[in-house]
Amino acid sequence: MSPSHSSSSARTAAQVISRALPYIQRFAGKTVVVKYGGNAMVDDGLQASFARDIVLMKAVGLNPVVVHGGGPQIGDLLERLGIDSNFVDGMRVTDSRTMDVVEMVLGATVNKQIVNLISSAGGKAFGITGKDGQFIRAKKLIVSKKTAAMSVPEIVDIGHVGEVEAIDKSVIDMLVDGGFIPVIAPIGVGSNGESYNINADLVAGKMAEVLGAEKLILLTNVAGLLDQNGQTLTGLSAKRVDQLIAEGVVHGGMLPKIRCALEAVKSGVPSAHIIDGRVDHAVMLEIFTDEGVGTLISNQHDTHMGIC
Predict the structure, then answer these.
(1) Which of 101, 155, 269, 298 is most deeply packed, by most CB within 10 A?
(2) Is the alpha carbon torsion for 205, 207, 208, 212 positive or negative?
(3) d(CA 185, CA 70)
(4) Spatial distance between the Cα atoms of 16 and 4, rounded to a whole number of angstroms
(5) Three-state DSSP class for 170?
(6) How far apart are CA 181 and CA 118, in angstroms?
(7) Running along the chain, 308 residues long, what does each successive block of 10 average in pLDDT?
(8) What residues pair up with 143 in beta bridges, in sequence order?
(9) pTM of the complete model
């Protein structure tokens, strides 16, 4: 490498670090809940960049808390075991055999893989499920369906699928105070000790609320919330998101994520970010730059609607 090229690279690196300084100062000591899933979870390069982003956050004084999914990994193991996968409104029907697989994949395999990734990047991670210390209390999710021909809704039993009833934040506080990065598998425990499979986005949203997080970040496989022209919408107020839902701009698989982010913001989380996990170092770009890689929702007035 020539001296001029080396000097140019050094200046570029210095500029990047300098531009990140105001964000580091602003968010030092704050909690950021990150839901990890999608392509970022299965691509080797994106796995490494995600882990480095999380370790960097901790190193400069932020407190990252990771909540992870694992639907594709669960589906793969169920297929190998000859167990059918069935879904109702996008939720996996979870009987007792399927729940055993969910606990094995989320609580052991995937959780420990993420802990190892963060450890390899120089961080100190601690993997837990919501059953550990019973810190995520859950109840059975009631699903109802109604058609025009029905006088009353039909209740559909989807098994061990739950929703968050309560979170004991002292467990996470203890880990954070000890210098650890919590890595949480979205498995809850019922009043009788039964296990529940909970949507990771919902767990992340509730975790952000309970912990008083500065930000909720949901990694996805898309560029964020898109308008009718395929452009990414960002800088949205909660009120504007409600309007977009009513107008049908938000639909399909994006709707549950947007609702999760919206509920977190309405419950006091200053901002929620739905970002493109296919982008290298997506988390770092979203937190430490003003360029962003997805949709930002906050309780502020709309600041910008266009391409991130």
Answers:
(1) 269
(2) positive
(3) 9
(4) 19
(5) helix
(6) 9
(7) 58 74 91 89 89 96 96 93 86 92 95 97 97 95 71 79 95 96 97 94 96 95 76 82 81 79 93 90 88 80 41
(8) 156
(9) 0.89
